[in-house]
Amino acid sequence: VNIAYNNDNSPVKLNLGMGVYRTEEGKPLVLNVVRRAEQLLANDLIRVKEYLSITGLTDFNKMSATLIFGEKRYKYHKSTFIVGNSPVIKENRVTTVQCLSGSGLLRVGAEFLARHYEQKTIYIPQPTYGLHPVIFSTVGLSMKTYRYYDPTGHALNIQGLPEDLDSAPSGSIFLLHACAHNPTGVGPTAEHWEQIRLLIRSKRLLPFFDSAYQGYATGSLDADAVSVRMFAADGGESVVAQSYSKNMGLYGERVGAISFVCKTTNVARRVESQLKLIIRPMYSNPPIHGASIVAAILSDRTLYNEWIIELKAMADRIISMRQQLFDALHARGTPGNWSHILKHVGMFTYSGLNPKQVGSMTKEYHIYMPEDGRINMAGLCAKTIPHLTDAIHVAVAKFSN
């Protein structure tokens, strides 16, 4: 899709396939707080460029665990003001290591499970992020799918998902999108998550969370971590991969952390030891710059608060794009019920467009997206919504589902 878009010389071409944020002017965004953190790092003459340890930057790992599992904050100024109050952190039952952003996190986690976990079958949602099956099959895990998306209502398959959880063999691994499901935009409610948690724990399944959008989905770091924290609070084991590509805009820095929540401190230490044996021959140790940016922002109250404001602004703009597109389709009288655009959460939404409709939009309107009709809502702006609305209206009329 991206290659075809780049080869198109049309002045009205529109790329809604690539999973990156764009401003209202259609430009890439570097957060102001990231630039400030980089300037602080550049001015710190004590910093050196030595290799990190195999597990990465220690402060980054501690703060990443706190961010995803729960936190409390000092009310007064302090250079490092985030202190964990999550049970898994207080009881030292979690081990967190820095890895190479989303795909790298998943690869390390998958390798660990393939080597050391009792079961070699992982269930992935249908549909899911395109690299998920590639990564897990590469390490030799057997893959099955569970029902997640209901295309008739553009919603969560609330009947099929619990049935597939209940029928899975004990000990199986279940891959879960922590929030803002890619590619559908469909997310479980808190009540759904509790139902999922109870089933997973009763069947002794292992939850493996892919958290790529914390704070970027709803604008709230806490709301977007509800699923992970539910599982962390019940004393059971879990795996959590968290990336800073989207919520800090650090795409090319390739920075993220993977956490293993264990039942005891001793197991957590042993897991970390085995992770070192996996990482060392794979890439030796992770890069320092991106992790230093994250640590600088998370450890300074002023920078952290600035990040929260910018993060919410990104999330709010995506929500606004959903509303504007829905309103435009409704005003145009485009056939169909487009309310799911408003109900979906995060960067992506399954539009409901079929491959013929998508192909027609590309050919006639120079709009690029995957054949499944997934739209990157962050790739839209007020100026491009009328163009997209025209294309959808014509395509729906020309090729009915």
From TrEMBL:
Entry-linked CDD domains: AAT_like (cd00609)
UniProt source species: Dillenia turbinata
Source organism, top-level taxon: Eukaryota
A biological process from GO: amino acid metabolic process
One Pfam family named in its UniProt record: Aminotran_1_2
Family as reported in the entry's similarity comment: Belongs to the class-I pyridoxal-phosphate-dependent aminotransferase family.
UniProt keyword list: Aminotransferase, Pyridoxal phosphate, Transferase
More about this protein: In eukaryotes there are cytoplasmic, mitochondrial and chloroplastic isozymes.
Alphabetized InterPro entries for the sequence: Aminotransferase_I/II_large (IPR004839), Asp_trans (IPR000796), NHTrfase_class1_PyrdxlP-BS (IPR004838), PyrdxlP-dep_Trfase (IPR015424), PyrdxlP-dep_Trfase_major (IPR015421), PyrdxlP-dep_Trfase_small (IPR015422)
First-level EC class: transferase
GO cellular component: mitochondrion
EC code: 2.6.1.1
Reaction catalysis annotation: L-aspartate + 2-oxoglutarate = oxaloacetate + L-glutamate
Cofactor: pyridoxal 5'-phosphate
Aminotransferase class I/classII large domain span: 13-392
Name listed for the protein in its UniProt record: Aspartate aminotransferase
Subunit structure: Homodimer.
GO terms of molecular function: L-aspartate:2-oxoglutarate aminotransferase activity; pyridoxal phosphate binding
